[in-house]
Amino acid sequence: MNKVLIQAAAALLGALAAVPAVAGEPLQTPARMSARAPRAMLTAMALAGQRTVAVGERGIILLRDGGANAAWQQAKVPVSVTLTDVTFADASNGWAVGHDGVILSTNDGGAQWSTRFDGNKANALMLADAKAAVGKAQAAGGNLLADAENALGDIEAAAKFGPSRPLLGVWFRDARTGYAVGAYGQAFRTTDGGSNWTSMGAGLPNPEGLHYNAIAGGPGNVLAIAGEGGYVYRSQDGGASWQRIETGYSGQLYGVIFTARSMLAYGFGGHVFRSEDGGASWRETPAVTKKSLVGGAMQGSSVVLAAQDGALLRSDDDGASFRVVRQGDAVPTAGMLAVNGAVLLSGVGGVRAAAGEDAK
Hints:
Blueprint lengths: L3 H5 L1 H7 L25 E7 L2 E6 L4 E5 L7 E2 L8 E6 L5 E5 L4 E4 L7 E4 L1 H22 L3 H16 L7 E6 L5 E5 L4 E4 L7 E2 L12 E6 L5 E5 L3 E5 L7 E4 L6 E6 L4 E5 L4 E4 L7 E3 L7 E7 L2 E6 L4 E4 L7 E4 L6 E7 L2 E6 L2 E6 L5
Antiparallel strand pairs: 1-2, 2-3, 3-4, 5-6, 6-7, 7-8, 9-10, 10-11, 11-12, 13-14, 14-15, 15-16, 17-18, 18-19, 19-20, 21-22, 22-23, 23-24, 25-26, 26-27
């Protein structure tokens, strides 16, 4: 998962029992409205103008207008799968992704959501990619054919289980152009606001089908994906072509950030890597925690990272070094959001303030 907490906290969710379980097919079953939704497991947050939007388990999407004392309102959501990431291009247009390959969109600031994509469509696109790769390998000869045939077999086998593969990251450059990535090499692009999606899989050098955990955009048409195996995937043409770049690490990278002068990738075990040449090469930043890093953001000119135990790390030198500015509180954490001078953390039990906004 793009948030290591989602795995670590799975055993806690039953005891938490924030929202009653829903029956039926999750992709066709709306999220249940519940007064206990704000105490659910929430995985990610985004800003829709001045509104805070949080997503999480069982299709829960929450909205809050105002500060710490404002009440959360639950949005109407057409699915009850776990949602893993959310992004907004402006105050109105937003998208969320999650399990079973679902992509949702809203055009009213998050009050109501519509399904735009799911794992059935993802399977069809990935099968087409894999069949094309086999055809290309057959024409080229050499050792690539066996790898292509194995990849096709894996996708065919997975498709038999239906829409089972999660999407883990989503990012939009504007209200029309966006990207979604996920487990087992899923990568999709839209140019019409999410009404239609195409696969980027054929252009990504990932023959192993490694997981893509997060995607972010930088200046111009630059994109970066943080993934499994310590790889960062870079595109300089809006996703038309990609390079796979080694960071020197073989573990999970959960996120990537563009700063004013560099790119940062962070992940498992407190690892942070920094590139000063647009992602062509990477150097590890000295670690200040061994906890996995599950969220990051710019706050003014500083970089803030959140660890899975709720600790906060801050860098004031463009990511060359970090220091711990908040010790962990042992509450399993999935993500973070920087809002002006405040830092919010999402995870087990909902959203809590870690800095500013009446944080203790």
